[in-house]
Amino acid sequence: MTDFSQHSLLIANRGEIALRILRAGRRLGMRVICIHSEADRGAPYLALADQAICVGPAPAAQSYLNIPAILAAARLTGATMVHPGYGFLSENAEFAQAVTEAGLIFVGPSAAAMRIMGDKISAKTAMIAAGVPCVPGPDTALPEDPGSYAAIADAVGYPVIIKAAGGGGGRGMRVVHAPEALTAAAMLTRQEAGRFFGTDAIYMEKFLQTPRHVEIQVLADQQGTALWLGDRDCSMQRRHQKVIEEAPAPGIDRALVAEVGARCAQACRDIGYVGAGTFEFLYEDGQFYFIEMNTRIQVEHPVTEMTSGLDILALQIRVAAGAPLRLTQSAVAMQGHAIECRINAEDPASFTPAPGVISALHLPGGPGIRVDSHVTAGYRIPASYDSMIGKVIAHGATRAEALARLRAAMDELQITGVATNVPLHQQLLREPGFVAGGVSIHHMEQWLAQTGAADAG
Length: 457
Ligand code: ADP
Fold this sequence. Notes:
Elements lengths: L7 E4 L3 H13 L3 E7 L13 E6 L10 H11 L3 E3 L9 H9 L3 E2 L4 H8 L1 H10 L19 H8 L3 E5 L8 E4 L5 H15 L5 E5 L5 E9 L5 E13 L2 E7 L6 H18 L3 E10 L2 E8 L6 H8 L3 H9 L16 E8 L11 E2 L2 E3 L6 E5 L6 E2 L6 E9 L2 H14 L1 E3 L5 H7 L3 H5 L6 H9 L1 H4 L1
The structure holds adenosine-5'-diphosphate.
């Protein structure tokens, strides 16, 4: 039995996920330490930690991305475990390795597993080996010489997409519709890749025209148990940023999801993956196509927690410390439906971040409602970080019930003093396409373009 009261958990993150990790650590009976930047000095959740320590000035490069400062903070505070959250250093294999080499437990997979899955070409190769379906296209890097590209693209079939192996955050990709544009697109993507992603390796795959974004949550322990915890639909996106997520994905054959889920769990066993992770797929015409794996906890994990009844964060910490899952696949029972709205402090017309002080705040509640947020009345949203200030999640026995609860919750939520996307969510939750379920990844942007709703919001 792992005695968590002997462990001290350092949270290498900020905002709502720092508070979520803090709650999980507390639940396990751990001592919890928060790092913070100078800009986050007044963040209310810091008072809930056993210890809070400043790691640097506001710019993330000097604080939340500053590996030596974070390791020094861990040493000074007597931390035994480090949780990276999402974003920042969460998918940085060098950080995972440095934490481990400092004699601490990294809450996440091994640096080796992160390196395999962090490179989209080696991830694709590993998935094909595990029998996970991938987007059609070669599972190798494109050769340096562009002479062969036309033949490869012909075999894949236009349109194709050229992607950087190390790409992330929706960058390092180019869609090509005709042979004339191929070489220039490949060269540009290669240059960009070399400059931003540490490797200039690029690859080509088919560009799917109207896919949905559907992902599988996995959880694996060090004893060889790997489980999949259902699926999520994150197709409601703007500029590749998810806005609304739900579990399960509406209207997809459950037997097919189970088959893909089982293969994801098998892929975890094959590569020795430990911890929480997400396999992201595009789904089109009744088929799943793997695009990438996220080797960390995700923003949208609460919808899976609501439908599975599992505390994924606490389980993620437990398995990192070597505790077995003590759960079998058949005991994972998903119930009802959950939907999440990401709340951003942003200008409703331009979508640019709107930092400032929250003058008054009223949060919704009631059956099936969960709010994950670190903000309070009087809280100053710093300008240095992203604009997400929390999430409202609704669970119901059916999708219709979850939707009705979420609508009521978003109508009740009041955030005064800064502009937010709450009015946008109120419209999206009543938009007929989304209400019907199963929209493509282009749906939200098409709706915005047609209605000009953002300007009215
Ligand atoms: P990132 O790591 O930057 O998030 P992904 O590989 O996950 O990159 O792709 C991000 C988004 O780009 C996807 O959600 C999808 O909208 C689009 N995309 C990526 N690959 C394809 C493809 N083969 N066909 C169509 N769209 C794609």
